[in-house]
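Rotation project, supervised by the postdoc (A.L.). Task for the rotation student: set up a whole-complex structure prediction and record inputs and outputs verbatim in this book. Inputs entered:
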Amino acid sequence: MPNSHAIVAEQFDDREQQHEAASLGMWIFLGTEIMFFGGLFAGYTVYRNLYTTAFEAGSHLLNAKIGALNTAVLICSSLTMALAVHAAQTGKRKRLMGFLVSTMVLGGVFLYIKFILEWLHEYRDGLAPGLHFTYSGPQASHVALFFCFYFLMTGVHALHMIVGEGIMTVLLIMAWRGKFSERSHNHIEIAGLYWHFIDIVWIFLFPLLYLLGAHF
Amino acid sequence: MSSTEVPIEPRVHYLNADYSIKSWLLTTDHKRIAWLYLIAITFFFTVGGVAAVLMRLNLLEPQGLLVEPETYNKLFSSHGIVMIFFFMVPSIPAVMGNFLIPLMLGARDVAFPRLNLLSWYVFMAGGSLVLYALIAGGVDTGWTFYTPLSTLYLNTHVMATATGVFIAGFSSILTGLNFVVTIHKMRAPGLTWFRLPLFIWAMYATSIIFIIGTPVIAISLALIALERAFHVGIFDPALGGDPILFQHLFWFYSHPAVYVMILPSMGVVSELITSFSKKKIFGYHFIAFSSVAIAAIGFLVWGHHMFVSGQSIYAGLVFSALSMAVAIPSAVKVFNWTATLYKGSISYEAPMLYALGFIGLFTIGGLTGLYLATTALDQHLHATYFVVAHFHYIMVGGAVMGYMGAIHYWWPKMSGRLYPDGWARVAAIIIFVGFNLTFFPQFVLGYLGMPRRYAVYPPEFQTLNVISTAGASILGLGYVIPLIYFAWSARYGPVAGPNPWNATGLEWTTASPPPTHNFEETPVVTEEPYGYDRIAEEIQVA
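Outputs recorded:
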């Protein structure tokens, strides 16, 4: 792409058509993501109904306070993302780069808390089914199932975060090279949709996994 | 087949613009990507076909003619997995959809051409993994990957196969996404929703199923992989898992996937029937909305695969009623096609033979589906050859007939050349006869109680099995003939001209083969589709 301004791919008539197509494409992609997570949520719900007490016991072993902190971090990153989109729409390049960096940093903090303060901890506590599982309370195999879903759901979510961080890096480089303007900021808006989507998935994951049988 | 005007061969079109291998493997042209898919799925069809041939040969003898029962299990699993995920699902959508959607919309390409190429590579990556699994020793889970067969209980190459299917699923998702956006945003000026060809409506409904259904099977297969890797009980009852949950998740995708296979064929048949009756389609709106209705209701019927799996009988009753409800939009289509034929000027070129074959065979397949949707009858017929016959009438009698019809109808547009119509008609008739001879006896076998997926059977079933195998060899011959004359036609066939069938539709207004950007200038649409009455008048005047 030689020139940042007025790039319209050859299959489109004009920039508006290109913009609409790209947004619609992202919305549809997010629809497929909902179905993807939906399968996980469905499986989780079935087992949570079958083994309610074991799932509550498993949930009590998670650190809900750190989870809450992480939720706050992620919501803040959504705010900075929204501000980044606004900065792109108003053509403020420095602000845009600043907010992209803050979004990336907050995302990084989230991943640090998730992996180092939670996963590593849970692994050491012997709560990782298949790798290191030492829980010996009642219904241990069903508690293992809870942790299985916990690691899978938060893991798939974290994978999306990592992809998001990659996208942010690309956008940052593009912004640094001055590829965006008031009239051309499609990429930022679409990445914003993706980022907010990951945030919303977490908003559902947090109560489902951490707050079972309210143990505050 | 006559071309009314002297065709003027365009100097440069999408096929001769560049001959290098690189220009094919890195193409973003939807027409070339369609060819890439065509070659790939023809290969997979052959692989699945060889497995079918071996199965049918084995069933010549009650004790099994050729292979051990274990190998037989792997044969029917390979046949199902390859044919469904790597031939049927991508057949019409990825080949004809890719080729036709931008042409029918008057667009230069799909909305995301690079994504389109990516989805071919994703498809090939998944396919390669499955081929590797087959060569390494195969799977014996059946195409359904039911637990506990797919757990460590029987340790075949489930991981590689499931991963391959998982990866190929993303190809479907990306293709569906691309088509929906293209249909929404890339229509030519004046091409309103109710001026769209019915093939586009069918592809739209199909794409919606791709988008909504495929992620669910992806996550189910991921869960199976997780279960195998970490020995936790998600679906495996021995570890405290729930095998019924897997069946629910699996069929939530895989039943709608049946409509992924049949809806595009229905779209094709709508085009063929009206084109070869030279008459405006009867009940355009009904056919268009019945596609959407089939896609919508199709998501609510998955439980009819599980009447005998231990699902609640009340759930079974609801699924039974909903399954019968799908018959309504399907019947709407059949009645509308029949009404289109009424008083039309029908001609029997090869594509039309396939379309008529489709209507008859699909009707049989659909009606026997009602037997199976009846909970009481299903107790008797479940997992017998009746089911095998039923879904082959839908998939082969229906979907493959539609696919063959589509290839024959749009071949002149794709290649710019004609094929020998006489041979094509002969092949169509051979396929029709061979198909019925193969699968009709299986209805009887199933009704008499022969279970599917067994390498051996009681001696009294031998006669019907021999008839079925004989039919399969005729069917196989029917599939080889088109391969030969298409290969011949691609090089030596007479030049087709832009509109060899005197058909309506934007794809026939541009040259054959089309230029790289499809149209010399963007077409403007000013009228309803299928204006054959107007064409008839023009011919009379001329």
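Student's summary: The mean pLDDT of chain B is 93.
Supervisor addendum: Residues 378 and 394 of chain B are 18 Å apart (CA to CA).
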